[in-house]
Every structure is written in C-alpha cells, then in structure tokens.
Amino acid sequence: MAKNIMTADGLKKLEDELAFLKVTRRAEIAQKIKEAREQGDLSENAEYDAAKEEQRLIETRITEIETILKTAEVASDDDKQAGKVSLGSKVKILDVEENEEDEYKIVGATEADSLQNKISNESPLGQALLGHKPGDTVTVSTAAGDFEYKIVEILADDN
After folding, report:
1. Which residues, in sequence order, are CB contacts of 7 under 8 Å at separation 6+?
2. What is the pTM of this model?
3. Rounded distance, CA 88 to CA 16, Å?
4. Would you state the pLDDT for residue 1?
5. pLDDT, position 80
6. Strand pairing partners for 91?
7. Residue 127 neighbours by CB distance under 10 Å
8. Cα–Cα distances in Å, from 91 out to 3, 129, 140?
9. Cβ-contact 98, 104 below 8 angstroms
10. What is the largest CA-CA distance in the chain?
C-alpha cells in the first residue's frame, strides 16, 4: 500500500474525527434507530430508513479514515529544508501573468481543501513549489497551458 504523507495537524484532525464518529455519532445513530423501531412497522418507516442510511455513511467514513491512518506517515521536521517550501509550509506566491498574490498551505493529498487554500503536495502547483525558496519562479504545466508563479515568502503557520 502507498504511504499517505500528511502533516501532524492533518493526522490529529483525522484521529479526532475518528474518535468522534466512533463514540458520539455511533451512539446518536443507535438512539435514532431505537426510537424509529419503537414506532412500529419498519417497512414503511422513513425515520428508520434515514437512520440506517446515516449509519451506513458513518461506518463508511470510519472505514475510510482507518484505512488512511493505517498508511499515514507524518512529514517530520527533518523533511523541512531551511528556507525551502516543504510539506506543511504556508507560502505566499505571485501569479506572474495576473500579478495577483495568493497564500497556500502545502498538505498531504488527504488533507487538501481548496476552500481553505490547502493544496496537495501531489497537485501540479504543490509539486512545483516543493524544494524551492522565496524569490524562485516556478512553472506549472497544466492542460490549460503553462503558468509561472514567484514564491514571495514562506509564512509562519498559524493554521
């Protein structure tokens, strides 16, 4: 199995989510199922069906997280090269063509979240930035063409 490289924060969030799902959500769903059963005929009981579907989704997510955690490997501080972009780095970059700055955090693939500007180390931009330092310009090749980004700075990580 391939390793799941991730940040320490990402690992902690998954472990917390797993604990929450196993302890809290399972108990809540069990209570919903119990209450739905008490209503009688299960063949026409929408609450029972909804609770069982919710239970299935939670169990699927638990299995998914457990699989990720089995292969998880936290990027150590030793992996960070002084002054260079590495997994866990928060970077400010300049889109050379558009002259616009953006900030991204480089995270493992399972942690990526574009809405929070967390990009995967496996994405074209993430791969291009890794190992470079402020002042470097990197080229990202995509299906839409090549784009250039200048690394403005590596920021202190405040999550």
Report:
1. 74, 75, 87, 88, 107, 108, 111
2. 0.71
3. 19
4. 61
5. 60
6. 104, 154
7. 15
8. 24, 9, 16
9. no
10. 69
Q: Are strands 145-155 and 90-95 parallel, antiparallel or unpaired?
A: antiparallel
Confidence (pLDDT) at 76 = 64
Q: What is residue 102's predicted lDDT score, i.e. its pLDDT?
A: 95
Question: Which pLDDT score, from 0 to 100, does residue 43 have?
Answer: 73
The residue with tokens 């997510």 is: 61
Give me the mean pLDDT over the 114-135 stretch.
93
The answer to whether the beta carbons of residues 91 and 106 sit under 8 Å apart is yes
CB half-sphere exposure, 22, CA atoms < 13 A: 11
Rounded distance, CA 33 to CA 36, Å? Answer: 5
Angstrom distance (rounded) from CA 16 to CA 36: 29
- CB-count exposure of residue 26 (10 Å: 0-12, 13-18, 19+): middle
